[in-house]
Amino acid sequence: MDPTDTRPTEKRTFHHEPDDGAHIGTSIAEAIAAVEGVDAGDAPSPLESVVDTDALDALFAPRNEDCTRGRGLVRFPFERHLVTVWADGTIVVEPDAVGG
């Protein structure tokens, strides 16, 4: 590892609130941007290049008005990060967890 490299190396946890009207893909992009220390629109490649964000929205959407999803997760690599999205809205970004 380059001693002058100041990228964060610890995983960080974020939370998506579907009631805010935000899409989970937006929350994931914002989480990755926060870890990278950049604006969400400045990611080197769009999140959609590795995962179908509409499918994530559908997967984690409430089953009906009174019942949210309580279990399950999706994990995928994005850039140099490993991203885990839990059904409860927790987003974990692990920097440098993926080679490349």
From TrEMBL:
Region spans: Disordered: 1-23
Record-linked InterPro entries: HalOD1 (IPR040624)
Residue stretches making up the Halobacterial output domain: 24-95
Comp. bias regions, Basic and acidic residues: 1-22
One Pfam short name: HalOD1
Domain of life: Archaea
Name this polypeptide is given: HalOD1 output domain-containing protein
